[in-house]
Amino acid sequence: PLYSSAASDVYKRQDYIYKFNSFVANELISLKDLTILEFGVKEGRSTKIFLQHCEKNGGKLYSIDVNDYKDKFNNSNWTFIQSRDDNFDYLENKLPKKFDVIYLDSLHEADHVEKILYYYFDKLKIGGLFFIDDTSWLPYIKNSKRDNFYCEINNKETFDKLLEIYNVNFDRFDINFDFTSSGVCKIFKKSEKLAKSKKISIRTMSFKNFIRKIVKFFKKI
Q1: Which residues have a Cβ under 8 Å from the Cβ of 139 and sit 6 or more positions away?
Q2: Of the candidates 80, 202, 188, 71, the residue with the CA atom closest to the CA atom of residue 131
Q3: What's the whole-number mean pLDDT along residues 149-168?
Q4: Are strands 173-178 and 184-189 parallel, antiparallel or unpaired?
Q5: Separation of alpha carbons 142 and 145, rounded Å
Q6: Element (H or E) spanning 65, and its range?
Q7: What percent of the chain has pLDDT above 70?
Q8: Alpha-carbon distance 112 to 136, whole Å?
Q9: In what order do the strands lie in the sheet with 124-133?
Q10: What is the pLDDT of residues 17-70, one digit of tens each?
Q11: ∠136-16-56 over CA atoms, to 5°?
């Protein structure tokens, strides 16, 4: 590794806070009385920032995690529920019907992200924001500073899956990606109900592209 374990942890923590503040928190800075749903607590970095926003601008934060973090914060604006984020029947009557902001930072695998996005998109208000953490694979490629096979593959698959969803939902949401640190995706909801995702047909391996590459090659020599 390029960094010691301790140095790497500090680097990732600083990177995460910068990414979260610049791409997530800054989007909310002028918004008041938000109802926020957060999946994944762990160190509580995002939870703390969301709660600071609620204290300043009003609002309520609901956090879901499989581990018990109910004692991590003592804040009247916070409700913690110990559960899997895909335990839909269990959570249905424990959460509000609609949210202004949803932040997903739990299991970073494409199929799981797709499942959560499709279910909770209906619970996001029109004009609401859905953030998905860990959508950049670049820091984890071989010989990079965070070289990690699992994170590289899962983040790349998640990125591709989100593009597949967007490709059939242009009129239902806008999407942006930030590649700081492990990356984050921002979805702005424009209308209800998502169409089912499907593979994007790309002509990279087509005969026409093969001929194009040959022509380009001979033009260089």
Answers
A1: 145, 146, 151, 181, 182
A2: 188
A3: 97
A4: antiparallel
A5: 9
A6: strand 59-65
A7: 94
A8: 16
A9: 78-82, 59-65, 34-39, 99-104, 124-133, 184-189, 173-178
A10: 889 999 999 999 999 999 999 999 998 999 999 999 999 999 999 999 999 999
A11: 125
To which residue do tokens 């921002």 refer?
186
- CA count, 13 A, side-chain hemisphere, 61: 29
Eight-state DSSP code of residue 139: G
Residue 164 tokens read as 């597949």
Residue spans of alpha helices (H) in 21-167? 26-28, 45-57, 88-92, 110-121, 149-167
DSSP-derived 3-state class of residue 36: strand
| pLDDT tens string 169-190 | 999 999 999 999 899 999 999 9
The predicted pLDDT at position 11 comes to 45
Q: What are the DSSP E strand ranges found in 66-189?
A: 78-82, 99-104, 124-133, 173-178, 184-189
Strands 124-133 and 99-104: parallel
Residue with tokens 């939870």: 47
In the numeric block, the tokens 């003592």 are attached to: 74
Task: Name the pTM for this structure.
Answer: 0.90
Range with the lowest mean pLDDT among 6-15, 176-185, 207-216?
6-15
**Residue 175 pairs with which residues in a beta bridge?**
187
